[in-house]
User: What shape does this take?
Amino acid sequence: RANFEYDRITGWFGGYLFYISTDVLRIQEALPIPLFPVIPADSTQSSTQGLVGISSKNYALFGDITVELTEKLKINLGARYDWESFDTPTVELSFDVDPPDCIINPAVPGFGGQLCSEVFATVIPGLSSSFEAFLPRGAIIYEFDEDRSLSFTFSRGYRAGGVDLTFTGGINELFNTFDPEFLNNFELAFRSVWPDTGITFNANVFYSQWTDQQVIVPVSGENFSDPITLNAGESELYGVELSADAKVTSKLTVFANMGLLWTEFVDFQFAVDGNGDPVNAADPQFANLDGNSFNSSPRFNAAAGVTYQDDNGLFGNANISYSSAQFSDVTNLPQNRGDTLFLVNARVGYDFGNFILAAFVDNLFDNRAVLRRNTGNVQRDVGAVVENSNPSFTVNEPRLWGVEARLRF
Assistant: This one.
């Protein structure tokens, strides 16, 4: 990276190179379900072992320049060129099934009607793919004075495509490929410091538009532990963020922040067959997910807190936070909706200089909430809900308290 400055122009440019290679990845699973729809479910258990080599390369060139048009007005322009490649060589898989009294379907290529009691193997050709993107960025900043400014920014984001390895998509469908996603983001931001009152106040209003957003879903309605990545056609989000902190006295500071977020899939064909072609969904609401919200995206969140720091070393802080309910999946099944979450945390201690002693408690009132539910999902090739016979739930951390000591050298 190199920096430069000339008159009212400042900037920098640079490059990036990344390479990683994983020679061997060993995979083992116990599958008490039909394997690749080849081995009957009454086989009880099967184990798989695979040798997978994978390599990834990433090159990038980037630069940024800021021009002061006047004492109050400046523009900032930047860009990045990004190139990535993924190589997944041939995959060698072997299977060992118990009990030994079932016959493998001879119509399935690669198995030839061998007995389940035998260890059999198959070879799946590897994949190679590469992606590139040009990502511009621009901003215009107006500074009212040295403490307050208003800016408008446009930026384009990108995440490369890739490959998922799945065990339940069919013996010749171990790899699920997905395309890169692109994001156009627009943001209006106000930044301010008010020295006379000790208050800092910031506000953001933003709008983002996705093309081919990458979302994660189960590979099939019956299997909840083998996810793949899909591309939604178009989606968008917009919202507001506000934050403020104030120095009440020389020892006491308070803060508060909040955010509002709206998300929506604009074009997301969901009910499709194995070739990606639309099917007549048994439940029309799952034919496409247009109008649905993103998963794991609460509409409202807020936090507030106070910090005390005495000159003699005594300190303490406390904060509260709230997050509204959120969907656990892109199909927005009501049965999978999470709970709201309210937390209180506190910490108090003494700083002796080179030694700090403090007591803390997280989740003071031991509030418990189910953040994510997995009680069912939508089977894409039929467009209908499939209940999960082994539902799972993700909950927040319980109350945690303790004492900490820290020694500085």
Notes: The mean pLDDT is 83. The first strand starts at residue 2 and ends at 6.
